[in-house]
Write a structure and sequence with these properties.
Two copies of one chain form a homodimer.
Chain A: H1 2-23, H2 26-42, H3 44-60, H4 65-71, H5 75-90, E1 98-103, E2 109-116, E3 119-123, H6 128-140, E4 144-148, H7 154-170, E5 178-180, H8 187-192, E6 201-204, H9 208-213, E7 229-233, H10 239-251, E8 260-266, H11 267-283, E9 287-290, H12 292-297, E10 302-303, E11 317-323, H13 326-336, E12 341-345, H14 349-358, E13 363-368, E14 385-387, E15 395-397, E16 403-414
Parallel strand pairs in A: 3-4, 3-6, 4-5, 7-8, 7-12, 8-11, 9-10, 9-11, 12-13
Antiparallel strand pairs in A: 1-2, 2-16, 14-15
Chain lengths: 417, 417
């Protein structure tokens, strides 16, 4: 009951703040963001002390090394947060952009204008930097944000949220524009997901558990959940290029959604390609799970099961399958891929064209690594997530994807006949 | 059980068809649409016979005159359907449009390409022309459609759906791309709304009952439900223009969502404006419900209750309130409006600017009638609905709003450092 009424107050504050933010100018928003950057630097010791507490508790709970690394802050990471806030402040304001405009034969002037979405709730894992990122990007795009971070980062997030609210107020914007759910309970998600009257969009960042927790939501959700990405090495591939791309797509950061989980290789080049690749991958500590034909070429590969083709390992594991045609590769990706990012390596124009058209993923690569699926790499100057949705936004999201539009129609008394 | 397995077969057919449609060229889609136009003309007598049966049954059920008028087809209306199909065929293909494209510093070429959404279910009232419209527009945009029309038009729709499927097949496209739910039972909606795996989007056209039936849906919904629209006559309004716009926005077609339900008038012009307007409206059979101040000027007005300010009459009824300021008008619209279409009549630049910025509706009008909120009037060449959503599409929808996009990234072996 206390939680519900707390959330109620918070949501009302966010809704009111959203109306103010929608009308605030870029100058005001940027000033508040720059104040936040300064506040982060000034409060560095307080932030680090809170984070040490979180870290010690997470360690005692037996969290994995990767988890602890994402949770941990140090001086350099606090400075990186402050710099990223300043970078967001320096981006152009997406709000007010005239997306399109035209005049109708009857003289009406129609303009389509970019405006904020309203109140956006971001639900994320125990990564304190996401608290600052989500707040900044949401506010820059003129939205109020409701932040619900992972419980292991609660103390750190509490400090970061307080600094954000204070900086907003100091900059003349409503402090409630960045509302922080100061509660580690999953019950908060159950409340939030039903408040379509108060929240316009939920952006979840997390795994299968969060996906389940959000089932039955009435608030629209812009998910970025699974990333089962593929590289397909075509028979006409430059094998040296293919090897570089495969190693990059698997090894450069295996725990992220745009790393590949499955490699498909055309039968005609499998023998030449997979031998050296297998050695390279093994040398980098990658566990290989292969189909029968792949295993004949890579002796250290263990047998892949049907489950392997659908698995998002997020780890140094790669499933490899030899296929007999481009068609088989495309069908395999349609069946097992998550529609996030898939690449073909080929010198064959027709194969590249068919792959680009027929693979139904947010980002389709021809002769490049799937790892570029990222707002910064796409040149958006920011990243607000990678949508696996087909509606509203698909693939890497920047500031624009946190906005909607309205039409303003100017006339001289026109009526419809 | 039979219903479920029937729907299952239908959805699988639609999903497969969507893959074919996504790759079909404009020429093929247009050819199939032109065959449909011909088929409608050839089968006119069969269509009219089926419609006469539907009409007789609806009449016996005691349906309203307006309902019966929407249901009824005649020779001219069948010809209008055929013409509208031909018009859709003549529109440019939205699929394949390069929305944006740029080169990154590392040489990667990124293009954002318009593609179909996939499978779209349209749930609509007993208007047979919507069967043809929804099928044509969905297919033109490269989607498979699942059509579920109102039960009173079942016989007519059955004929129209059969003609559509046959025309698709005759044009070399999968007949299952236009799937018709041949079932008057609400149970079908309950099945469809949960099949997020098979349906990418539901577009509902209907009232409060349909809204309730769709509660708990897991399939994304692009609603166009309520339309509580306003005209605000500012103190600086040209009163002659204001009168023309008000009469048009209320009387030209009161049963549609972009007609106004509430009129707000600034106190300074209320006496001059409302007297003549009241007479005009009454002469046109409009029932006026007014606030106390409005009733002092319009003697025939009955007292408006709090409920009236939120009501979507869809009828010749208008609620009128006198306000003391632009601020009060904007706050009233925020509280009672549905965010669809609202207009200000004013000669004051600052008032026009504030209204355009602060009224958070899909379409905001300055000195023009809200009745222009329509895909054709906006110049889209088609109308696929008027979204009251903030995400994906807002306001009048054309063919583009039935599409999404993918990124195609071309490189020469780039890897992420």
């Amino acid at each position: 009951m206390a939680l519900k009424s707390e959330l109620e107050t918070m949501l009302h504050g966010a809704r009111q703040a959203a109306r103010v933010l929608a009308r605030s100018r870029g100058k005001e928003k940027n000033a508040a963001l720059r104040l936040l950057a300064g506040a982060l630097r000034d409060a560095r010791d307080e932030i680090l002390a809170a984070n040490q507490g979180d870290y010690a508790r997470a360690l005692a709970r037996g969290r994995s090394a990767a988890f602890l690394d994402r949770l941990k802050l140090d001086r350099a990471r606090v400075e990186a947060m402050a710099l990223s806030v300043e970078q967001v402040a320096s981006l152009p304001d997406p709000v007010g952009e005239i997306i399109a405009g035209w005049r109708r034969p009857n003289g009406l002037e129609i303009t389509q204008i970019r405006i904020p979405i309203g109140v956006i709730a971001v639900i994320y894992e125990s990564r304190p930097n996401v608290t600052i990122d989500a707040a900044c990007l949401g506010i820059k795009a003129g939205n109020a944000v409701v932040l619900r971070g992972g419980s292991d980062a609660l103390e750190t997030n509490r400090v970061l949220a307080r600094l954000t609210a204070r900086s907003l107020a100091a900059g003349g914007l409503p402090a409630t524009a960045a509302a922080f759910v100061d509660n580690a309970d999953r019950a908060a998600i159950q409340v939030l997901k039903q408040r379509a009257d108060m929240i316009d969009l939920i952006i979840p960042r997390g795994g299968a558990e969060l996906k389940r927790a959000l089932e039955g939501a009435t608030v629209p959700i812009l998910p970025h959940f699974d990333g089962v990405c593929h590289v397909y090495v075509d028979r006409a591939a430059d094998l040296e290029m293919a090897q570089e791309v495969c190693v990059n797509a698997k090894c450069s950061r295996p725990a992220v959604c745009n790393a590949i989980e499955n490699l498909l290789v055309h039968n005609a080049v499998a023998a030449d390609f997979l031998g050296p690749l297998g050695e390279q991958l093994s040398a980098r500590g990658v566990e290989i799970r292969g189909c029968e034909r792949a295993r004949r070429i890579i002796p250290q590969a263990i047998a892949a099961t049907e489950q392997d083709w659908n698995a998002e390992y997020l780890d140094l594991i790669l499933a490899i399958k030899v296929v007999d045609s481009l068609d088989e590769a495309i069908a395999f990706i349609a069946r097992h891929g998550s529609g996030l990012a898939d690449a073909i390596i080929t010198g064959d124009l027709a194969a590249a064209g068919r792959f680009a058209e027929e693979v139904d993923s947010a980002a389709v690569y021809i002769n490049a690594s799937t790892r570029f699926t990222d707002g910064f790499e796409f040149g958006f100057g920011a990243e607000t997530g990678i949508s696996t949705n087909r509606l509203h936004a698909r693939g890497p999201m920047g500031l624009r994807e946190l906005t909607t539009y309205k039409y303003v129609v100017r006339g001289e008394g026109q009526v419809r006949i």
